[in-house]
Amino acid sequence: ETGQVVLTIPFDGDVAGTAWDGESLWQADNRTKTLSRINPETGEISLVVECDTEGGVLGGLCFDGTDLWLIVTGAGQLRRLRTSDGTILKVHSVRKNGLGIGYDGRRLWYTDIDDGRVRKVDPGTGTELMSYALTKTPAGLAFANDRLYFSDSSTGKIHAVTLNSRS
Questions:
Q1: Is there a contact between 76 and 112 (Cβ–Cβ < 8 Å)?
Q2: 150: pLDDT confidence band, cut at 50, 70 and 90?
Q3: DSSP 64
Q4: Phi/psi at 3 (5° precision)
Q5: pTM for the full model?
Q6: Per residue in 85-128, pLDDT tens?
Q7: Given strand 98-103, what is the order of strands in its sheet?
Q8: Nearest Cα to Cα of residue 102 among 147, 48, 136, 40
Q9: What is the rounded distance in angstroms from the CA atom of residue 22 to the CA atom of residue 19?
Q10: CB neighbours of 114 closer than 8 A, spacing ≥ 6?
Q11: Per-residue b/e over 18-28, b at no fewer than 16 CB within 10 Å?
């Protein structure tokens, strides 16, 4: 309501994507090329998972209700990870410079910083289903209240868009 910071968790790293899995926070760290599972009350790290970035960098993270999804920017990979131990369950090839990632309850979406689009992907097959041009430079994204929210790296603002009912 007020925008006041109510909790700060120190994290020593080069932070990238952050996700909430219903119990823990997950933080990507490009300095160590790891994902950390963090207790949101204590700040304690309970699991650290090493990530081979294959020449890219760790990008966005999201939770689909069961597993985590990580996008590796520059490597064109979308990875599904088991939350209990970080095991890679699936890897899909996507556009090379995907950055932010979100889940709408059925499909994955990611921002493509090369052409300013958001792309919808079938999580089972990795098939791109459609894309929308955004008027800004999209970076991170999230879904809430039937809207897609994306951060604009060129202006430092967060924008909300309502996608049509076919999406």
A1: no
A2: very high
A3: -
A4: 80, 5
A5: 0.90
A6: 999 999 999 999 999 999 999 999 999 999 999 999 999 999 99
A7: 98-103, 108-112, 117-121, 128-133
A8: 147
A9: 9
A10: 95, 96, 97
A11: ebebeebbbbb
